[in-house]
Amino acid sequence: KAVIMDKTGTITTGDFKVQKVVSLGTYSESDLLRICAACEQTSTHPIAHSILSAALASNISADTAPSFESPHSMKEFAGHGIIAELSVGTVLCGNRNLLKEYGIRFSSSIPDSLSGTEVFVAVNGNLEGYLLISDTLKTDASSAVHLLNTQGLHTAMLTGDSEESARAVAGQVG
Question: Higher model confidence: residue 13 or residue 63?
Fold first, then answer.
């Protein structure tokens, strides 16, 4: 006997949070978050909301211009990211596919896949860093999975996330 669960909404809350900001270039982590928030401020995507929430929580405020400057131009590519013109230049915020499409080179020090949703940030053709965003576990997820397992049931999780992200969640809940 087995119980098969969907990850989002069953094991996780569906509430995405920025877990990590990594600088790979000349911009600080707070600069990367500010730049990304400026690009994402008009998007309705849940990932954009998590970036804006993280920026606001870290005291990067819309009231302290140019923290959330308005892009001179902006284009959103559904499921891939955003290209925007900011005071720092042309900014790409998105997944690997979007950045590779625009000729952005990835360092061999960046794993092929990270545990969570990746939002890479490139400025004027240079990869400057990335944000790692993931869903939040429900507080009772581990105990529920443990209870099912002690009753002799095999548990499995379905997700559209990357294998690494799925393994990370599965490792957290047991």
Answer: 13
Indicate the pTM of the whole model: 0.78
Catalytic residues: 6
- Token representation of residue 46: 């849940």
Tokens of 127: 């990869």
Give the C-alpha separation, 39 to 164, whole Å. 27
pLDDT over threshold 70, residue 160:
yes
Query: Three-state secondary structure along the chain?
Result: CEEEEECECCCEEEEEEEEEEEECCCCCHHHHHHHHHHHHCCCCCHHHHHHHHHHHHCCCCCCCCCCCCCCCEEEEECCCEEEEEECCEEEEEECHHHHHHCCCCCCCCCCCCCCCEEEEEEECCEEEEEEEEEEEECCCHHHHHHHHHHCCCEEEEECCCCHHHHHHHHHHHC
Q: How many CA atoms lie within 13 A of 44 on its CB side?
A: 0
Q: How far apart are CA 144 and CA 77, in angstroms?
A: 38
Whole-angstrom Cα distance, residue 134 to residue 49?
12
pLDDT at 165: 77
